[in-house]
Design brief:
Elements (H helix, E strand, L loop, with lengths): L1 H15 L4 H21 L2 H6 L1 E9 L2 E4 H8 L2 E17 L2 E14 L2 E16 L2 E11 L2
Parallel strand pairs: 1-6
Antiparallel strand pairs: 1-2, 3-4, 4-5, 5-6
Length: 141
């Protein structure tokens, strides 16, 4: 009950700010997809531009800042991906938490991989531009 009251307050705040919950959700999901698509094409510039300078990404190897993430991403390519179980929680008018499951295939450091992962990403809008501030990946069973 408490979380539904909080969600209602967040929805009202978003609506008052001129955004519907669906349009906010669509913006966040589009940003995440643009980053994933950049990983398919090897466009590290686009991927890097969508990552905040102080961003922290967490995976099985632990936390990493933007520079280390970009270094590791240089030898990472997605071939295909599908997002499912997508949820967006609006935290503020210009901040949202995206949670989803991804099925992905690709190559990392010269080795093919296939994975199912739960992802959470925190997106913030600064000076009219969306940036990923935090992301965490957890292997899915």
């Amino acid at each position: 009950m408490r979380s539904s009251a909080l969600m209602s307050i967040l929805i009202l705040r978003a609506t008052a700010a001129g955004q519907t919950p669906d349009s906010f959700r669509d913006q966040i999901v589009a940003q995440e997809r643009a980053g994933l698509d950049a990983l398919k094409t090897g466009d590290l510039r686009t991927f890097g531009n969508s990552t905040a300078e102080e961003a922290v990404f967490v995976d099985a190897q632990g936390p990493a800042g933007k520079a280390l993430v970009l270094q590791h991403t240089a030898e990472f390519r997605l071939t295909e991906y599908t997002m499912s179980e997508v949820q967006v929680i609006q935290i503020a008018p210009d901040a949202g938490l995206l949670v989803y499951k991804i099925n992905e295939t690709g190559a990392s450091h010269g080795k093919a991989f296939s994975a199912r992962v739960y992802v959470s990403s925190l997106w913030v809008k600064r000076a009219g531009k969306w940036q990923c501030l935090f992301s965490q990946e957890t292997s899915a069973k």
